[in-house]
Amino acid sequence: MMNYASFGFSRNSMRAVVALAFLLVPVVASQPQPQQKHSILNFFAIGDWGGVGSIPGAEFFIGVHQREVADGMNKVAMDQRPEFVVALGDNFYLKGISGQQAFQRVEKTFENVYNGAGLARVPWYVIAGNHDHYGNVTEQIHYTYYSRRKSKTEEGFHHRWEFPSLYHKRTITRGHLSVDLILIDTVDLVESAFLLEPNATAKSESLWDTWVRSPLGFTTEKEPPTTKQWQWLQKSLSDSTADYILVGGHYPVFSQGMHGPTKELVQHLKPLLEEYGAHYLSGHDHAMMHFQQNAPASGGVRYIVTGTGNACCSWRRNKYRQEHEKDYKDVPLLWHLFHQEKHHDNGLTITGGFVSIQATPLSMKVQYHAQDGSVLYRAEPIPPVPRRQQSLPDGPTSKSENMLTKDDKTKGNVAIE
Ligand SMILES: *[C@@H]1O[C@H](CO)[C@@H](O)[C@H](O)[C@H]1NC(C)=O
Ligand SMILES: *[C@@H]1O[C@H](CO)[C@@H](O)[C@H](O)[C@H]1NC(C)=O
């Protein structure tokens, strides 16, 4: 497996380029730089935002703090003009959506909440969380096409819900800048991770059984797990030529919150992120965390946890800190906001929040916001992906190829999409 040490040369040359660019700025400042000006991309990320279920209250299907976070997002949006919002799952508490009322629930919990002037036309790129999987995720996917049709016939209605399939990706380019956003379904990945292990078929049936009989009862039509999405993810990463690669999923890789890290993702996703120089956005724990893998020259994978769209915050768990001490030496938690820390000296009690990201060809900046939009933490700027294709003509591979050999032979799952 590659690591950042092998990028030493290209990273140093990039730093030289960056330094040079700064030197040049005053010299060329008098001339218009339209390209540079347009090479900026602003967007938000939010997790665990999906209102409440059938709990009686003044506003059905809207979480108590969800509206506050939506107001704060709108405030920041008026200033930053985000081009999209990444929605990291748990879109509808407690059991997703299903049946006749499904689309009405999307209107109540989504359309009628994030509709301030700064957000009303901003698309959301959506994936499902575990709570969505308790309902029928297919309905959430279908709402994409319904909403698109509706926007063509209903005046004043803007199509914003982009959830075209269980996992999906897009490349966003602005001037000289390109960002790959790879959105994955971590429920499916976690449940299928065992297929990447030796002798997987022996285990598969019992695990499949547990999954279908989860206590809340799934209504989604599910097929037995396969490694199809793992393959898609690996191919999406290896195909990427973007300046930044962001993978978004519901379950965190690392967390010191209530749910802790996700074993399967530490095992199988972390190596892929490191190999391809990608960063990871997630929710699930209702807290804010920023992990940065130790690596030369401020590279290293960032793990951004923002599960506070509807609530802040869950407790920090010493258990997860201690059990994973070894991991956190390499991937330290640089900043966090847990329940213990939600009362600020300035009088603000934090009830929720979100993340804003600004990418330019030089760096990507991540800020964590409270429900009123105020900035709680500014992470160290992230440099672009080192261009591995140039330094390593043979290309990446051996590790991940090994990872995906097993069940494709035994279960006959063909190929990569
Ligand atoms: C896989 O199954 C074979 C046959 O039952 C067994 O010999 C082998 O030890 C197993 N491998 C692992 C890693 O469990
Ligand atoms: C899920 O929703 C889709 C689309 O409306 C529908 O075709 C399917 O029957 C639903 N599945 C279940 C288990 O309700």
TrEMBL record:
Location of region: Disordered: 380-417
Keywords: Hydrolase, Signal
UniProt-listed Pfam families: Metallophos (PF00149)
Annotated ranges, domain Calcineurin-like phosphoesterase: 43-287
EC number: 3.1.3.2
Molecular function terms, GO-annotated: acid phosphatase activity
Source organism superkingdom: Eukaryota
Start-end of Polar residues biased regions: 388-403
Signal peptide bounds: 1-30
Protein name per Swiss-Prot or TrEMBL: acid phosphatase
Lineage of the organism: Eukaryota, Sar, Stramenopiles, Ochrophyta, Bacillariophyta
